[in-house]
Amino acid sequence: MAEINENIHTVESEDTGVIQIADDVVASIVGLAVTEVDGVSKLTGNITREIVAKLGKNNLSKGVVVEYDEDEKAKINVSVEVKFGYNIMDVSKEIQDRVKQTLQTMTGIETSVINVRVSGIDFRE
Asked: What angle do helix axes 88-107 and 23-35 make, rounded to 10 degrees?
């Protein structure tokens, strides 16, 4: 079955072998999914859509914490700043939905919890 290391999620298959996905990869996927949600200004790591386009995907893991529970499901904690004028609950729910769907599609990793912390409001226009 699957084995979980500190920084790598490992899935063993009797038929095909071992697949390992580093936590940084999972965190980057989560970060990208979050920055694509309308109303998100930035992750707490100060990564905006414009900066992501310039810097690449390596900095997307800031503001994202990935852990795994005993059922091998990901527990995601993400901290964001929301743009002024957007409904915080709607943006947060969209973050949860987008993260869950993106992780499942790209990695096959299921999530047990996706916690969203709104750390501030961006009043810039």
From this structure: 140
30-66 pLDDT tens trace: 999 999 999 999 887 544 444 454 545 445 667 898 9
Which DSSP category does 6 fall into?
S
List the beta bridge partners of residue 57.
none
User: What pTM was computed for the model?
Assistant: 0.80
69 contact partners, CB below 8 Å, separation of at least 6: 75, 112, 113
Separation between Cα atoms, residue 88 and residue 121, nearest integer Å: 9
> Rounded CA gap, 25 and 17, in Å?
20
